[in-house]
Specification:
The complex is a heterodimer. Helix content of chain A is 71%, strand content 0%. Chain A has seven helices and no strands. In chain A, helix 5 (103-109) packs across helix 6 (115-133). The two termini of chain A are 37 Å apart. Chain B has one domain (3-140). Chain B is mostly helical. In chain B, helix 5 crosses helix 6. In chain B, 70% of the residues lie in helices and 0% in strands. Chains A and B meet through helix 1, helix 2, helix 3, helix 4 and helix 5 of A and helix 1, helix 2, helix 3, helix 4 and helix 5 of B.
């Protein structure tokens, strides 16, 4: 119950951050990506602020064996920079540049009651489902990738 | 540079809130605040693993309403993309973030904050693709 409440608060803070920074506005996001046009650097400050404060949190957690409300930290297990990572990020970037929406702002914008975020989020869920369809393949890839990075860490004494 | 649209203060403040949200979720629950992971993992999540994901999304959905209560108006957004473009973009974002294990929040905020080389590579890749796409659409295709 406490974990669920904290997750709600975290989502609320996250959404407020998107509203206050105006990252919820696709026009603002596209103006940031438009280096050759009327460039708006604001979103670099969103990233900087977010990374700084999140970094503080991760630093605080470093001395702890477990989070306050659970038995362990669930950190991403895969460390390799592989083809799915880069291909996925490139595809995502193209979609981001077409619409000006990434997942967080699009979800938050659903509450504005407009049709555009609804169309985007529905298609996004369909895209995620399509990927889940290839899940067996992806899982096998992830295992290989993690095996490889584990071998690398053992070899390098990490 | 369009100085009249430049809003570094509200951007930094909003960014700080996003960072605090990520710090809170990590310190208390030991979870990465990556939106595509939270949403994409919802369907396949085990029973005890689903409630926090749903709660996080409800929190996000509540944010514009809370902001309207505090400021008196809903945030203004300008969406120029057509509905078919939004549908294609959504598909790409959904598929791409799952294939690449993250989006702007998971890789761009949490990953960079954890000094992950993998997330730095992903962030460089999606920023480059986003910038290139906007360049093609706005300055080459002339839309």
């Amino acid at each position: 119950m406490a974990r669920t409440l904290v997750a709600f608060l975290s989502g609320l803070l996250f959404g407020l951050g998107l509203v206050v920074s105006r990252m919820i506005d696709p026009a603002k996001v596209l103006a940031f990506l438009d280096l050759a046009g009327r460039w708006d650097a604001s979103l670099a400050f969103v990233m900087a602020g977010a990374v700084l404060f999140a970094g503080g949190g991760f630093r605080l957690a470093r001395g702890r064996a477990a989070p306050f409300l659970d038995d362990r930290f669930r950190s991403p297990e895969c460390h390799a920079i592989d083809r799915p990572l880069v291909m996925g990020a490139l595809l995502f970037g193209v979609g981001w540049g077409l619409a000006g929406f990434c997942p967080g702002p699009a979800l938050t914008a659903l509450s504005l009651g407009r049709i555009e975020p609804l169309v985007f989020v529905s298609a996004m869920l369909a895209g995620m489902a399509a990927h889940r369809g290839l899940d067996a393949l992806a899982a096998a890839r992830a295992r290989r990738c993690c095996d490889a990075s584990r071998r690398f860490e053992q070899a390098s004494g990490g | 540079m369009a100085w009249e649209n430049f809003t570094p203060l509200s951007a930094s403040l909003g960014g700080a809130l996003i960072g605090l949200a990520a710090a809170l979720l990590w310190l208390a629950n030991g979870r990465i605040a990556g939106i595509s992971g939270i949403v994409g993992g919802m369907r396949a999540a085990a029973k005890g693993d689903r409630a926090w994901r749903v709660a996080f999304v409800i929190g996000m959905l509540a944010a514009p309403g809370l902001s309207a209560l505090l400021t008196g108006s809903l945030p203004r957004v300008t969406i120029d993309a057509s509905l078919p473009t939004l549908a294609i973009a959504g598909l790409l974002v959904g598929f791409g973030t799952r294939l690449g294990s993250g989006c702007t929040s998971g890789h761009g905020v949490c990953g960079l904050a954890r000094l992950s080389r993998r997330s730095l590579a992903a962030t460089l890749a999606f920023m480059t693709a986003g910038i290139a796409t906007v360049f093609v659409v706005r300055h080459l295709a002339g839309v």
